[in-house]
């Protein structure tokens, strides 16, 4: 049995994902309070996975000295997207609880489809930025 994890740096990804989410919440609220500008949440939703994948790509290249091979990059991207989905489900449930009122079957179906679509998008975001920033770090060296 190997001692190396099949999905390395997943903890780093989750920490940076949380930092990105909190940062986006702060920026959205600051823009709203200071300038009265309402920025769409959809555009901001992609920023935390991008940030997290960039940081993991940098760490991967610095510690291992190579760009993640394609099979490992895809596997990592899928597992990280599933971890991000778990976080998004928790955030969605907390948001729904704060709104109050009943959750209908149609609302639940729409949320489930939205989360599934967003997870697919996050897989590609993770894969792209993981490899892009690993190559960037190795090119600078």
From TrEMBL:
Source species, domain of life: Bacteria
Entry keywords, A to Z: Membrane, Transmembrane, Transmembrane helix
TM spans (from-to): 7-28, 74-97, 103-129
Protein name from the UniProt record: Transmembrane protein
NCBIfam families noted in UniProt: ABZJ_00895_fam (NF038216)
Keyword Transmembrane: yes
UniProt organism field: Pontivivens nitratireducens
